[in-house]
User: Fold this.
Amino acid sequence: MPTIEHFIPFRAGELIARLCRDTRIAEGDRAGLRAVAELVRALIHHDFHARLERLKSLYAPFDPDRDTRPIDPPPATGLDAVRKELLDDLGALLVRANYRRLEAEELNRALAEESVFNVQLHTQLDDFAELVLFCRGITALDEPRQAWFGLKKWTQRVDYFQRVAIYTRFKEREHFVGKGRKRLPFTAGSSILKLFQNIPRADLEMLFPNTDVRMKTGQKLLVGVPAIAGGVLVLVTKLGASLLLVGVLIGWWIGLADEPQKMEAKEITALCLGLLALLGYVWRQ
Assistant:
């Protein structure tokens, strides 16, 4: 069953203009309707502006990108209370803005779906002390897909969230040190608040700051097999003769050959150049 959205995908100004053109509204009442609508819009704007300023103040102690210095920072013992107040106010504001909170069941179902971008996304939800997502507006688009080097093509129906707001707070450093994870791509204990647009429902995890992008098995083979074949070709063309001579020397050393073999300067030089070519190839891969 599709989720019922409170969001109305029309601009307020266009709705007011459309209502004022309605023939059921008397000509003399239309100016009054416009005036009332403008007063309501101004009242809502004032209310939301006050809420926004309050949210900024609550988020300031946790903002990892702030460029201001606090004058009266809250005590460390009171940060948990400030954080709870922040989440409560943020949730109430987003609900007023016609967002809805993604419940755990819907989030897990979205994470289990196959990525639209044909990549493997991996995230560890256990890294988060708090993870809250709100979304607004759902659209469905037909996206072209292909496989087998473009020989197989089809169209897939993909659901997009028009807006996604995400709040995350990572666990403290002790959690990651206990798991042997000392080098992190994020700051332990930090909080992040972001807003995104047009996100596929199946790729919500790409919004998480700890998500890794990994290649699928087929993609690894597509890259790895030519690399291995190229390496074998380098060995044969650059080091074939030299490696054969080295093999003969090793055979004599372990007793498989009766007569000793000697390597001249030009053969040693060829072997060194071949090894350099092989190292250069490996480095480029």
In short: The chain has seven helices and six strands. Strands lie at 100-101, 120-122, 128-147, 152-170, 191-200, 212-214. The longest helix spans residues 217-253.
